[in-house]
């Protein structure tokens, strides 16, 4: 299963088999929160099956959905790279199966064992973060343009 997930792209069969044996899985029922905005953690998750929503708290306390994750997606990778609080809440909207990866797993199973595999995993994370940043930049640019046009082109 891991072979078809972009996070593990380029990893050899031996490393994939090791990860499949060592990484724990979790089943998440509908409505259950996997991570909470503001919490601290050093783990990420890979979606094997199911669907999750990503929500952000608004300034007045409400929530708004910013993304959906399904099989093959992953989230929480920033907590592997830095020690900042979670940037959003992730909650199951369908019964979901996840693989949990901690910073300790990354160190023990990849960094100490095979620097090439470790580097590939980090590059795969960096590519996804870059893709997400480009999407966010596009959305922000479109929003700023729309607001600017609305308030500067009055007749």
Describe, in plain words, how this protein is organized in 3D:
The chain has 155 residues and is an alpha+beta fold. It has one domain (2-152): Sandwich (Jelly Rolls), CATH 2.60.120. Helices cover 39% and strands 26% of the residues. The protein contains four helices and eight strands. The protein has helices at residues 13-22, 78-81, 103-111, 115-152, and strands at 25-28, 33-35, 43-49, 52-57, 63-69, 74-75, 89-92, 96-102. Helix 3 (103-111) crosses helix 4.
What attributes does this structure have?
single chain; 155 residues; alpha+beta; Jelly Rolls; four-stranded antiparallel beta sheet; 26% strand
Element layout with pairings:
Layout: H1 13-22, E1 25-28, E2 33-35, E3 43-49, E4 52-57, E5 63-69, E6 74-75, H2 78-81, E7 89-92, E8 96-102, H3 103-111, H4 115-152
Helix pairs in contact: 3-4
Offer a quick outline of the entry.
With 155 residues, the protein is an alpha+beta fold. It has helices spanning 13-22, 78-81, 103-111, 115-152, and strands spanning 25-28, 33-35, 43-49, 52-57, 63-69, 74-75, 89-92, 96-102.
Provide the low-confidence segments as ranges: none
Rg of Cα set:
18 Å
The separation of the N and C termini measures: 58 Å
Strand percent estimate: 25-35%
The SSE order reads HEEEEEEHEEHH
| Overall tally of structural domains | 1
């Amino acid at each position: 299963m891991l072979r078809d997930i972009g996070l593990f792209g380029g990893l050899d069969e031996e490393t994939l088999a090791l990860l499949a044996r060592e990484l724990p899985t979790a089943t998440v029922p509908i409505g259950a929160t996997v991570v909470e905005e503001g919490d601290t953690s050093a783990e990420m998750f890979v979606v094997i099956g199911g669907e999750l929503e990503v929500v952000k708290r608004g300034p007045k306390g409400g929530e708004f959905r910013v993304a959906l994750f399904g099989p093959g997606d992953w989230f929480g990778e920033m907590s592997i790279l830095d020690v900042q609080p979670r940037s959003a809440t992730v909650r199951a909207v369908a019964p979901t199966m996840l693989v949990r990866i901690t910073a300790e797993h990354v160190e023990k199973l990849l960094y100490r064992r095979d620097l090439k595999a470790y580097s590939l995993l980090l590059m795969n994370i960096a590519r996804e973060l870059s893709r997400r940043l480009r999407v966010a930049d596009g959305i922000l640019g479109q929003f700023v343009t729309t607001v600017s046009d609305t308030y500067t082109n009055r007749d």
